[in-house]
Amino acid sequence: LRLLEAQLQDQRREHEEEVEALKNQVDAMKEEMERQQQAFLQTLQLSPEVQVEFGLQQEITRLTNENLDLKELLEKLEKNEKKLKKQLKIYMKTVQDFEASQTVVPVERTRQKRTMQVAVQRKEKDFQGMLEYYKEDEPLLIRNLIT
């Protein structure tokens, strides 16, 4: 129950942060729109040559800002990728440890069988074309050989 409450609080906090970020983005867009509107009204009063030059300068500024935003986003995504790769390594290690702990018990049970198999395998390693398999896999091996 506490875990669910903690997850709910985390989600609520993330949602509030996202809403706040979106509000800030809307405010920034409103300011940008007003600025562009003022610039447009000013350019209408200029000569055609100056209007073209001013338009080019505005476009260069817009593209530069967009490029900077994209670089910032790229940096964030790269940082997130590194974080996720670290988490993946941790989870993979946890899974491997879990699988290893699960296989310890059957290994102890079948130690005598494997000891006998090891002795047989050592003798058979001199032969080419021989198959090495577990006794449990024999029906599957026979079925695959037949098909």
Automatic annotation (TrEMBL):
Coiled-coil parts of chain? 1-94
The alphabetical list of record keywords is:
Coiled coil
Superkingdom of the organism of origin? Eukaryota
Asked if the record carries the keyword Coiled coil, the reply is: yes
Any idea what this protein is called?
Answer: MYO5B protein
The organism is Aramus guarauna
| Gene symbol of the encoding locus | Myo5b_0
